Amino acid sequence: MSFRARCTALLIIGSVLSACGGGGGHESATPVTTATPSATRTVGPTTTPSAAPTAGATVVESATPSPTATPTATTAAAAERLAFVIATDFQRGSFGTVTLDEPHTVSPASADRLVFQDAVARTYGGLVYVVNRFHGDNIQVLDPAQNFATTMQCSVEPGSNPHDIAFVSPTKAYVTRFSAKELYIVNPTAGADCTGFMLGTIDLSPYADADGYPEMDQMAVVGDRLYVSLERLDRLNFLQPAETAAIAVIDVHTDTVIDVIPLSGMNPFSQQKGLVVRDGALVVSEAGRFGVNDGGIERVDLTTDEAQGYFVTEAALGGDLTDFVLVSDDLGYAVLSLANFANSLVRFDPRTGALIDTVLTGSLFISNIELDDRGEIYAADRTVGHHGVRIFRADDGTELTASPLDLVLPPFDIVFLP
Fold it and tell me: Which of 48, 117, 211, 373 is the most buried if burial means most Cβ atoms within 10 Å?
């Protein structure tokens, strides 16, 4: 089957939205008609968000706050108690919650809990940052202390397709824009009217493939550096990989690109929570071309800024990588896309690269897996007619849920809150 047909089928079933080269957009989806977040909607006073800088320019306001090290790298996190779950059928977007304590009480998606139909979530400073992606094109901030009320919603330019937000400090963050050439620099706590939200841009087009778009995707802030994955896909050939992917390295003090690290493979799209940082390295999954099993997971040494090659391959696991988590030095989980468009959830040994076993397989569609601080794997199972959140004991793969926890809409993306 052709790549285009494969992507179309994946979008229809909604199993892995970003499988078409990480595009993160469902182009045929119909926007929600009631209070759907728009590209320019704000909460509070009716004010037009700050205008975007001219494309290609690098603009940093004189009031740009001095960055500090990201708390996630240096500060012990509070104990997690709640799973926040983006839920969508790609016609309607909402969210629900699941308590981590048994009996795993579900607060389902509902009409008064609106996000865009294609969205992912991040957490920072006790808030939930929703990245409303293709045709949403904005950052929406939800406050758990106010029953997840929207406290800010700011545009990152219509048609830009944002994919990730990474934080340097409470007043400085970066937003990748998959369908644009410039990385945005923003103030994530600008306020309800979005005044001062836009701080500047960084042009990443010099590091793109021939079409001029780098397809920037996931990020990580480590110390005074920002790492940005560049997928380098061919927009004239249905977003197939055009060349070897790369990681752009940016100094967060000067907002300049200081290095570009070539990866071993193509299409590093599967991480949905930013780039994984573990033991002084980025851990990057590279899906390559779908249906070929040419990808794998590799480490990028942050001391030498060099990719070290795959420590586990798609060929060893038996499918295209769409998501993964590392539990320990000798245990990882991966979601695989199979030839029949279904998924498998497998366990592998990161030391040897060997497949340990298959936890789930069959006619199921898992869009996201995440590891909580209790040693449990949460899986967003989008299987038609049987969707919900499933929980597994990470050390042995035993399922802890008797049946998927139903949020009304199919789950898509999961983050944990204290």
Answer: 117
* Angle ∠(220,226,232) on CA atoms, nearest 5: 80
Give the residues across from 230 on adjacent strands.
216, 246
Which class for 355: exposed (0-12), middle (13-18), buried (19 or more C-beta within 10 A)? middle
Q: In what order do the strands lie in the sheet with 366-371?
A: 366-371, 376-381, 388-393
Three-class DSSP category at 11: helix
Rounded CA separation 139/120 (Å): 10
- With 0-12 / 13-18 / 19 or more C-beta atoms within 10 angstroms meaning exposed / middle / buried, residue 357 is exposed
Residue type, 380: A
**Rounded to two decimals, what is the model's pTM?**
0.84
Note whether 367 and 389 are within 8 A (CB).
Answer: no
pLDDT in tens, 322-371: 999 999 999 999 999 998 888 999 999 999 999 999 999 988 899 999 99
* Burial of residue 77 (number of CB atoms within 10 Å: 0-12, 13-18, 19+): exposed
Q: Which CATH number fits domain 3-417: 2.130.10.10, 3.30.70.270, 3.40.50.2000, 3.30.200.20?
A: 2.130.10.10
Task: Please provide residue 315's backbone torsions phi and psi, each rounded to the nearest 5 degrees.
Answer: -60, -40
63-78 confidence digits (pLDDT tens): 334 343 344 444 566 8
Concatenated DSSP letters for 45-75?
S--PPPPPPPTT-----TTPPPP---HHHHS
Q: Give the residue extent of every domain in the chain.
A: 3-417
300 residue type, one letter: V
